[in-house]
Amino acid sequence: MLFFQLDFSHNFSRENSLLKRLLRVTLPFIFVYGLLGAYITFGAHLFYQIDDGMSKHGIANLSIFCLTTIATIGYGNIYPTTDYSRIVCIIYCIFGIPLCLVCLDSTVKTVARLYWIVSSTVRRMRSPWIRGEIRLPFCIAGCLLLSAFLLKTLCFEKRFHFTLEDLYFCVVSFSTVGLGDIYVTSKTNTEAFYKIIFLIYGVICLSAFFTIMGQWYLHFFRRREEKIPIDGYLMVGEEQIRLKKLILQLCLKLNVSPSELKSLIKQMKDLIKISENNNMQ
Predict the structure, then answer these.
(1) Cβ neighbours for 204, distance < 8 A, ≥ 6 positions apart
(2) For residues 90 and 67, is the Cβ–Cβ distance under 8 A?
(3) How does pLDDT run across 176-185, given as a tens digit for each residue?
(4) Region class of 124: left (phi > 0), else alpha (psi between -120 and 50), else beta
(5) 113 and 214, same structural domain?
(6) How many Cβ atoms sit within 10 Å of the Cβ of residue 119?
(7) Conformation bin of residue 227: beta by default, left when phi > 0, alpha when psi is -120 to 50
(8) Nearest CA to 177 among 106, 259, 75?
(9) Which domain holds residue 254?
(10) Which residue, among 133, 115, 112, has the nearest Cα to 123 in the 3D structure?
(11) pLDDT tens digit sequence for 106-144
């Protein structure tokens, strides 16, 4: 009975700690997106009131216009028709584009942090907090991007086959190129809402995918320049251990993520240099 109570108390404490960590990560994320949603709604009603040429498109399409404007997609099917609305659009972009960039960046980091929190919990790595640079695994980013592509066919077209036109639209929209030959429209506010969510989700997924690809390129070329193998084997005593396996074992032993281990190694190098300088003096 005593063992059961201790085990229950331990599990409850661990779950409570996990919940606190999840809340600390997600609450700022929810606040930022609430602010973005309010900004888009405000912009749609503002342009509806000040520009008769834009008001004929309705609030739903103007909401999509506001998102595509501050996300720098810019399909071009809706645009200001008066000098006054153009001035307002300039001011709207000046404040809206940084807000949108903050939302996209915070989302990628939040998803990466949530992944490592859940991963560390599953592996019983009870580090108090995840610090430093957190990267989303390539396979996770690829799956998220694939799900965004599938949403286009399932939610928009309500069919189960993916065409070249779907791929073209997704890449052009998610990469914020926005050529304008294919664009998003809606007839109701509800339809506009989930299409806005779809566009934001797609831009986030492709941004995360491109970021990871860029990190891979930098890592590969940096390794080529330094002529250091990405993976190999080390002799530990009389046993030959693969480098990746050794790193994973260190992470599990120290209860840290790979990025934290990298930071610890860097700190150790700095301490060794300081110690060597003191010995020389």
Answers:
(1) 104, 107, 108, 111
(2) no
(3) 998 888 888 8
(4) left
(5) yes
(6) 14
(7) left
(8) 75
(9) 233-279
(10) 115
(11) 888 788 777 777 766 665 544 444 444 456 777 888 888
